[in-house]
Amino acid sequence: SSxxxxxxxxxxxxxxxxxEDDWENVAEITPTFRESGEGTVNxxxxxxxxxxxxxxxxxxxxxxxxxxxxxxxxxxxxxPQTSLDLLYNCICTLRxxxxxxxxxxxxxxxxxxxxxxxxxxxxxxxxxxxxxQLTGSRINCPRYGHHWEDIGFQGNDPSTDLRGxxxxxxxxxxxxxxxxxxxxxxxxxxxxxxxxxxxxxxMVLSLNVTRIALHIxxxxxxxxxxxxxxxxxxxxxxxxxxxxxxxxxxxxxxHKTLSSSGYVLKDAEEAARRNPGKMIEEFESFLNxxxxxxxxxxxxxxxxxxxxx
Length: 309
Description:
By secondary structure, the protein is mainly α. 55% of the residues lie in helices and 0% in strands. The longest helix has 22 residues, at 232-253.
């Protein structure tokens, strides 16, 4: 069992997505590491004068609301509900989502159908922001190159890892690195991913966690949280971050390695589906007790500085 066995064909998605190609032909990602130079960072030759502002979530939401989802929204279909589904919804949701939350939820599902597009400047901006925030680099990195392996992609082209969760896969990772409250946490996750005895490909893990969060949202298990937050984006990003924390905590405290990653992922998904609200609360409690206000403020200052034009 491996990290990527959870990131494969999911036939249940045909109940929700009318077109099967983008959802079912999910490429299997096999985590591997460089044969030599493990634990080292690839040297990337760059023009030190090139440094773009970090990409923000505000820019992401503006982009997604600009009409780019119009051709994907029709591909997202509401699932036919059984009597058990209806009973569950009555017990767990209490009331159906209002139309504006349903619309946002559908937009999130549709964003997972957007492939990486080289012609979209914001797509590359997200990738570069991920690299800079995780590695501490202050300059842009090339679109292609083995440097992407340093943050846990599987080769010189990150877009090949995104099938199955699409643009949403890097948007959720962006959420972690561009949010002051979570940036110190994801830097700790990144440090653990580089630890020789417990190394794992961080972005491959992240994409698997996006799949988990996406399915929980899709299946209605986050509807109660969406009503509480009044914003499905907040809910699905919180769910994603909480699952990342759950895995990080188990990986670190139980000294897990890549060989047991499949079991860790399965356990995390089952726990999240059983009680998504509880897992989110546990993550929020962890952030409050483990990272000082000054550390979060330092993260905020860095993000603001590097987001300036």
